[in-house]
Design goal:
The chain is mainly alpha-helical. The protein folds into three domains: 37 residues; 118 residues, Helix Hairpins, CATH 1.10.287.70; 33 residues, no CATH class. 78% of the residues lie in helices and 0% in strands. The longest helix has 53 residues. It is elongated.
Length: 189
């Protein structure tokens, strides 16, 4: 019975988690904002991999490499994404290297430009977005803190004279620190 509904249940699990847990929602929103802010760089990276995969499809069309990894443009795109992540790039590069050592320059150039240039730009954008979000959050907290202090001050300022006398100040600190100052020396306060 459950097996027939398993695909539907698998789709509903993340939705239920997002509905129940506020922290999961906040993290999901932060990730979407990060992807939105980095979308131009991500599109450049995907375009770079697409162009390189099309070049690989053309270059290795009539070779063992072409028949193994670049049979169609879609397969070439998939294999070049694997190569770009460096998770299994020797399996993609080595057959071409054994056939013609100069073909390794294509893969080495692809990886050097992608890893050391495009990925560093993406990392810089992610760090910049994180810094901007942190500054915004700090400023929001500072504004909220100032509003709370102003509200508390106004609550203890009897007569709205814009300053607190000694008794009002003592009452405000008792409220803020949640402790009684009775019996303490007046000189210390």
């Amino acid at each position: 019975m459950v097996g027939t509904y398993q695909p539907i249940l698998n789709i509903c699990k993340p939705i239920v988690v997002l509905i129940i847990y506020e922290s999961a929602r906040n993290n999901y929103i932060a990730i979407l904002a990060l992807v939105k802010n980095s979308s131009v760089i991500l599109l450049c990276i995907f375009g770079y991999v697409a162009v390189a995969s099309f070049l690989a499809y053309i270059m290795f069309q009539n070779s063992l490499e072409g028949y193994s990894f670049f049979m169609t443009p879609a397969i070439a795109l998939y294999e070049m994404f694997i190569c770009f992540t460096t998770s299994n790039f020797p399996n993609i590069m080595l057959p071409a290297y054994y056939e013609n050592r100069w073909s390794s320059l294509f893969f080495v150039g692809f990886l050097i430009f992608g890893m050391f240039f495009l990925m560093n730009i993406l990392l810089a954008a992610v760090i910049d977005n994180y810094k901007d979000r942190s500054v915004e959050e700090y400023e929001r907290k500072e504004i909220r803190k100032r509003e709370n202090i102003s509200t508390i001050f106004d609550n203890f300022d009897e007569g709205e004279k814009s300053y607190l006398d000694r008794l009002e100040l003592k009452n405000m600190f008792e409220f803020l620190l949640d402790q009684s100052l009775e019996g303490k020396s007046e000189n210390k306060f």
